[in-house]
Amino acid sequence: EAQTDRLMNTMEDALLFFFPKTRCGARALSWDGAYVVTKYADMPALLLESGFATNGGDAKNLTNSAWQDQFASAVADGIRMYLLEL
Description:
This protein has helices at residues 2-18, 36-39, 56-62, 65-84. By secondary structure, the protein is mainly alpha-helical.
């Protein structure tokens, strides 16, 4: 669990670096509230939401290839930072 918390915090830092005006809502969920994709993982895991298609601003970003590349870079940097701290 400590590894997952560290991964979550590292990813939040990376996302905030690339998207400083974004509201990040990093939070660990209890066992009962956790999603299946993270609840039964054999390694540190997290679920990232990049936006909501029902939100006009998010929908515009989600269909913009430059924004997609920037989001992917932020995620890759978060993973890289996490692995370098091991």
